[in-house]
Every structure is written in structure tokens, then in C-alpha cells.
Amino acid sequence: MRKHAEWITQADERVLEALEDSDLPLSKEEIRDRLASAGVGGAMDYSQSYVDARLARLQAYGFVEATRTRQYALSEKGTLYLRGEFDASLARSGDAGDRPVHPNVDVVE
Prior knowledge:
3-stranded antiparallel β-sheet, 3 strands, 109 residues
């Protein structure tokens, strides 16, 4: 069971799940496309600006990492959250110090 925080939305969880399912980091557009294709009847057809805002929030809390090529990968904290092993209410904005789980990610320092 995932340990939620007040700031986490359903879209955040779907973004994290899309990154978890990917073998490679994804661009903002690829994430949005995956969310749209996963929705039943367009139920998850989020605007690009909304996905961008959620990615910025997830990055600020350390759940995703951005690469030099403007792609995103799940961080260790994001992986632990999806497994129910991290309480998201303990995360604070500015916690983006985790290293990504994916070995092909070149993190922007």
C-alpha cells in the first residue's frame, strides 16, 4: 500500500508508473502520450502543461530525476514510494538529491 502525501495527485502516480514501466528515460511528451494511451476513453488525457507542472513537483520532491537531454527517470525515492516502502508525507520540496535508478541516466547537477 502506497503511503500518500497531501500534494500527490492521481496524475503524479500515473507519471511515476509510466516511468517505472519504461526501459529508458522519457521526455515530457512521451510521458503525456503514455498517460493518454493508458486512459479509458481519454480519462487520463492530461494537458502537456499539467504534465509539465506535475513533473516539476515530482522532481522538486525527489521522486524523479531530469537528464541533460530533458528526459525523466524514476529516482530511488520514487521507486520506493511505488513499492509502498517510502512515506511520501516525509518528503520535502527541495529533496531532489536522489540518484536515478536507471543506469542510462546522466543527471543534471
